[in-house]
Amino acid sequence: MPHPHQALLDEFKLSIDRLPITVPQEIIDEARKLHAELLADPEASESKIEDALILIGKKEYPYRRAYNELAGTTSAEHRVELILDHLDASVKEKVQSHLQHGVTIDELVKSSMFETDFTPEERYQVEDGMLHAVDHLEEEAPAKIEEHQAEYDKLVETWKEKEAEMEGKIAELKALADVDKKWKDEILDKVRVFEMGFAITERDPDLVEIEKEIEYWKGTLSEEGVTTMHVIAVVLAVAALLVVIAVAFAMHG
After folding, report:
1. pLDDT number for residue 231
2. What is the rounded CA–CA span in Å between residue 230 and residue 149?
3. Are 65 and 153 found together in one domain?
4. What is the extent of the structural domain holding 114?
5. Contact 78, 137 (CB under 8 A)
6. Rounded to an integer, what distance in angstroms lies between the CA atom of residue 65 and that of residue 71?
7. What is the pLDDT of residue 11?
8. What φ, ψ does residue 134 adopt, rounded to 5°?
9. Are 163 and 174 spatial neighbours (Cβ–Cβ below 8 Å)?
10. How far apart, in whole angstroms, are the C-alpha atoms of residue 24 and residue 3?
11. For residues 149 and 74, is the Cβ–Cβ distance under 8 A?
């Protein structure tokens, strides 16, 4: 019988299988162990599975980002060469004509030109070439990382610092939830969204987005504070006026 949250667990497994080879083995082993435990527990809630995704995501994050950045800087041109080598001469010439005008292969494939300028067979050939390049680059990755090990290690530390900064900002946003009960649930919902960004299955969180959210809530809570103080000031003024009136009546009574 499938797990009540089988689809989410399938995403979890797929994400584990797609982790870059540079992610430490102990993290991959922990991820697989967690997945197996959750899969075997029909009582495991969606929230519990999400917590596991976030836990593993935070651990693999700096290694994956460092790998992607290094691969992006060292493999971009090589990737294009691999794709072009996979194409028939006529298709290769057609793709190169677009590249010469400053369009990247990724931009070409996403554009309307790919539909209008290429036949279905040619489009398949280009897309298959892109998949072939990915497989080839993954095979070459161990040697690439070893060749640039010092640079990779430095990138890992940089991404660890960026991750820590984002976690600190998320904690700052979470603290704002205690300022006013009126907005507590809404703020905590946003906190969960940003935390889920670290989940191994989700798009990475963005520091700028988190900072914008903090500023938004600081402004909202500040406005609420001003409003409250204004009400208190009015009440006190009315009370003082009533005292004056009462004293005046007493003096003339």
Report:
1. 36
2. 61
3. yes
4. 86-139
5. yes
6. 10
7. 93
8. -60, -50
9. no
10. 29
11. no
